[in-house]
């Protein structure tokens, strides 16, 4: 059974049970600076899980494309990937544990034919400190469905609790959270590796068990006094990796032959090697290339271009890691652009935009691959300086990692081949840990000032962002399209398509237009409208993204210009957007005058502006 078949079955299954199918959001979160990428199905739905009414109803289902940058180093085993699709279904104050667990079990066993004897589940063991009880309710439901008690395990808040802030003690007052119940598939033919512990269990990393789904029951809210109370509206948030569920449905402990088959076939063709007939190290190389290039294709398709900062850094890193491992397989020519067709063909029905953008994506990858192969030559020459003995210090190894993109395993391998007696691996790991901690600290700081708090300052800058995009189109031309955004309480940032540095006069004119619209006190109006009608009105929207039949649109001015009024066509700005926004542009003046602080290049054909209200 293929991923496309399972995706279709899942969406149909829950649609038949009253769920509305919603489209996948972009991998670049819209107006959410708390994270660089969409990494789960629930991420675009957080406002609705926190109480906001969803325009499509209380029961939702989708397949969300996701990217987790933190998993890059994990790729290479039988199950980890950076890019994946997350099958998800939600109840927003509607059904709860009994329906969720029963339906999911039915989908796995009746629809996909997975033997219940292969399934293990985990539940929350409770938290005495906060008087949160053990989740025996979920366990009893699993038993009634046919999961034996011996295959039900309990874990603490580090495994079976979900909130945005983490464990209960880390949650601030007013934060919702709750227990979750994870489902695992057991590959009985895989022997337990004792290096992961004396006994195997569902959360063991030996490869015998694979997590295939997690039902989160958002049940509690933290009080001001630190205690927990039940939420008045309790939600269900389910997420299951499509690739892993496909592996389970095929009893295939390796997700790559079932979820990356066309890419593996392409690599076999250009390398002259067979995936299952090579050494374990070469199998790992196949997996890393397949995952990284699929992820790169999707990220580029969603507007991210290789660069040295933020999202672009990860696209560049994916491609460069792929090149390094391609060399291991004997692929020394620029061939990665050929993978684009294989990926696009895999997803031609679910994500047709990849086919539409195929030529452009292939060009971006080809340019980056060619550029890195030149860098790689310099890196090898740099490594050759240490040949013939001596030690490669942690600092030198880390420079090869950061400057030339050499992963640690390649550094060790190349050092051994060149007669370098020792590599300071532990020192390298310490430097890498420090580097990751700095990055993590930066992300946490970004979260604290992020749009997720919906503060007045952030909301005003969000509206200013709309004014700015339209002003850029007026001044620079209709070719200007948004390629990314980041909005905090302090400033807004927009990435947009434009090939030249803006002149001082152009910047001043854009500022003048935005401030003019602020002082015109234009109303900001939210309207739900048919997608086709919004497109006919010329509403700005993300290229290649899939939208539901009914969309939320924000228009700015003139007075009385709601969606049905003739004056609507005179609106200054109209965009597909989920909000939030001010009700009148004059409110922006409370934060100050609009001012562009910086205009710079991000990548070829993409510029960036940082601006404030001060």
UniProtKB/TrEMBL annotation:
<keyword id="KW-0067">ATP-binding</keyword>
<dbReference type="GO" id="GO:0004813">
    <property type="term" value="F:alanine-tRNA ligase activity"/>
</dbReference>
<dbReference type="Pfam" id="PF07973">
    <property type="entry name" value="tRNA_SAD"/>
</dbReference>
<dbReference type="InterPro" id="IPR018164">
    <property type="entry name" value="Ala-tRNA-synth_IIc_N"/>
</dbReference>
<dbReference type="Pfam" id="PF01411">
    <property type="entry name" value="tRNA-synt_2c"/>
</dbReference>
<protein>
    <recommendedName>
        <fullName>alanine--tRNA ligase</fullName>
        <ecNumber>6.1.1.7</ecNumber>
    </recommendedName>
</protein>
<dbReference type="InterPro" id="IPR002318">
    <property type="entry name" value="Ala-tRNA-lgiase_IIc"/>
</dbReference>
<keyword id="KW-0547">Nucleotide-binding</keyword>
<dbReference type="InterPro" id="IPR050058">
    <property type="entry name" value="Ala-tRNA_ligase"/>
</dbReference>
<keyword id="KW-0436">Ligase</keyword>
<keyword id="KW-0694">RNA-binding</keyword>
<dbReference type="InterPro" id="IPR018163">
    <property type="entry name" value="Thr/Ala-tRNA-synth_IIc_edit"/>
</dbReference>
<dbReference type="InterPro" id="IPR018162">
    <property type="entry name" value="Ala-tRNA-ligase_IIc_anticod-bd"/>
</dbReference>
<dbReference type="InterPro" id="IPR018165">
    <property type="entry name" value="Ala-tRNA-synth_IIc_core"/>
</dbReference>
<dbReference type="GO" id="GO:0000049">
    <property type="term" value="F:tRNA binding"/>
</dbReference>
<feature type="domain" description="Alanyl-transfer RNA synthetases family profile">
    <location>
        <begin position="1"/>
        <end position="614"/>
    </location>
</feature>
<dbReference type="InterPro" id="IPR045864">
    <property type="entry name" value="aa-tRNA-synth_II/BPL/LPL"/>
</dbReference>
<dbReference type="GO" id="GO:0002161">
    <property type="term" value="F:aminoacyl-tRNA deacylase activity"/>
</dbReference>
<dbReference type="GO" id="GO:0006419">
    <property type="term" value="P:alanyl-tRNA aminoacylation"/>
</dbReference>
<keyword id="KW-0648">Protein biosynthesis</keyword>
<comment type="similarity">
    <text>Belongs to the class-II aminoacyl-tRNA synthetase family.</text>
</comment>
<dbReference type="InterPro" id="IPR012947">
    <property type="entry name" value="tRNA_SAD"/>
</dbReference>
<keyword id="KW-0030">Aminoacyl-tRNA synthetase</keyword>
<dbReference type="GO" id="GO:0005524">
    <property type="term" value="F:ATP binding"/>
</dbReference>
<dbReference type="GO" id="GO:0005737">
    <property type="term" value="C:cytoplasm"/>
</dbReference>
<keyword id="KW-0820">tRNA-binding</keyword>
């Amino acid at each position: 059974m293929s991923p496309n078949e399972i995706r279709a079955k899942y969406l149909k299954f829950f649609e038949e049970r009253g769920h509305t199918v919603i489209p996948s959001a972009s991998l670049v979160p819209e107006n959410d600076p708390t994270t660089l990428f969409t990494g789960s199905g629930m991420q675009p739905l957080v406002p609705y899980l926190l109480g906001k009414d969803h325009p499509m109803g209380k029961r939702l289902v989708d397949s969300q494309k996701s990217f987790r940058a933190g998993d890059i180093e994990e790729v290479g085993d039988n199950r980890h990937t950076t890019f994946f699709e997350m099958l998800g279904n939600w109840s927003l104050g509607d059904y709860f544990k009994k329906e969720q667990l029963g339906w999911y079990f039915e989908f796995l066993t009746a629809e996909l034919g997975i033997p219940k004897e292969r399934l293990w589940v985990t539940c929350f063991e409770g938290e005495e400190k906060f008087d949160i009880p053990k989740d025996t309710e979920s366990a009893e439901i699993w038993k009634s469905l046919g999961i034996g008690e011996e295959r039900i395990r309990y874990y603490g808040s580090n495994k079976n609790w979900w909130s945005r802030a983490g464990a209960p003690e880390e949650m601030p007052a007013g934060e919702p959270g709750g227990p979750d119940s994870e489902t695992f598939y057991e590959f009985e033919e895989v022997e337990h590796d004792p290096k992961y512990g004396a006994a195997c269990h569902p959360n063991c990393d030996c490869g015998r068990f694979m997590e295939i789904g997690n039902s989160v029951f958002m049940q509690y809210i933290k009080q001001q006094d630190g205690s927990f109370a039940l939420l008045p509206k309790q939600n269900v948030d389910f997420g299951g990796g499509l690739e892993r569920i496909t592996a389970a449905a095929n009893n295939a402990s390796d997700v790559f032959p079932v979820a990356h088959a066309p890419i593996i076939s392409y690599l076999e063709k250009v390398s002259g090697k067979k995936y299952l007939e090579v050494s374990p190290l070469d199998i790992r190389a196949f997996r890393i290339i397949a995952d990284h290039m699929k992820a790169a294709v999707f990220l580029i398709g969603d507007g991210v271009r290789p660069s040295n900062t933020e999202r672009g850094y990860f696209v560049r890193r994916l491609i460069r890691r792929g090149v390094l491992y391609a060399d291991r397989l004997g692929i020394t020519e620029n061939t990665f652009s050929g993978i684009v067709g294989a990926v696009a063909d895999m997803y031609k029905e679910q994500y047709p935009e990849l086919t539409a953008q195929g030529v452009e994506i292939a060009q971006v990858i080809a340019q980056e691959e060619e550029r890195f192969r030149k860098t790689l030559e310099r890196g090898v020459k740099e490594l050759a300086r240490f040949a013939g003995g001596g030690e490669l210090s942690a600092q030198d190894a880390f420079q090869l990692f950061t400057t030339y993109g050499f992963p640690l395993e390649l550094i060790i391998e190349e050092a051994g081949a060149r007669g370098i007696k020792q590599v300071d691996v532990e020192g390298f790991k310490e430097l890498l840990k420090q580097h990751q901690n700095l990055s993590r600290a930066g992300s946490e700081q970004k979260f604290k000032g992020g749009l997720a708090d919906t503060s007045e300052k952030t909301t005003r800058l969000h509206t200013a962002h709309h004014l700015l995009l339209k002003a850029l189109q007026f001044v620079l031309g209709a070719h200007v399209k948004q390629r990314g955004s980041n909005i905090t309480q302090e400033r807004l940032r927009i990435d947009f398509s434009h090939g030249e540095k803006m002149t001082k006069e152009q910047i001043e004119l854009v500022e003048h237009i935005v401030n003019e619209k602020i002082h015109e006190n234009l109303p900001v109006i939210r309207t739900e409208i048919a997608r086709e009608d919004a497109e006919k009105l010329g509403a700005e929207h993300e290229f290649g993204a899939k939208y539901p039949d009914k969309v939320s649109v924000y228009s700015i001015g003139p007075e009385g210009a709601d969606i049905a009024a003739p004056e609507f066509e005179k609106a200054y700005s109209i965009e597909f957007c989920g909000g939030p926004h001010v009700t009148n542009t004059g409110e922006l003046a409370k934060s100050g005058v609009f001012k562009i602080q910086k205009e710079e290049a991000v990548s070829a054909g993409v510029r960036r502006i940082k601006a404030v209200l001060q």
